[in-house]
């Protein structure tokens, strides 16, 4: 069950401060903590990683390297580190057809994830842009909101 670490913050706000309760004796998994500064504590899982593990890792794998010929890698590709608007649009609307990622062609479909909140989309996209060896800037919930409002979202 989620519990708020700081009063007045919820799991859907742009300043999420959420942790997952567990018995004090359970040290097997870290607790999600995002500080007001945006910095993460050592050995904790950020909200973006949790969302990635739930919705993205099945295809793109936990290491972000995808599955050759089936699902593209998220590592060192302009699809992830390049145009933020395109990346936001892909997550919100899905993607069908032939694409080339890191020199390899993929003909597959990625489902839309418009059911995620603006904060959740920003968190997961920032996670992939700043992990797996990627060093790209963060995506903010306001950027997601602007793209969501400007593009028709597939239902």
What report would you give on this structure?
By secondary structure, the protein is of the alpha+beta class. 32% of the residues lie in helices and 13% in strands. Helix 1 (47-55) crosses helix 5 (118-129), helix 4 crosses helix 6 and helix 5 (118-129) crosses helix 6. The two termini are 29 Å apart.
Question: Which labels suit this protein?
Answer:
single chain; 155 residues; alpha+beta; two-stranded antiparallel ribbon; 6 helices; 4 strands; globular; disordered N terminus
Low-confidence parts, pLDDT < 50 over ≥5 residues? 1-45
Q: What is the spatial order of strands in the main beta sheet?
A: 1-2
Roughly how much helix do the residues carry, as a percent range? 25-40%
Whole-number mean pLDDT: 77
Q: Report Rg.
A: 16 Å
Please give the alpha-carbon distance between the first and last residues: 29 Å
Helix-strand string: EEHHHHEEHH
The coarse overall form would be globular
Percent of residues in β-strands: 5-15%
Report the major sheet: 2 strands, antiparallel
Helix count, DSSP H or I runs of 4 or more residues: 6
Number of strands: 4
Structural class: alpha+beta
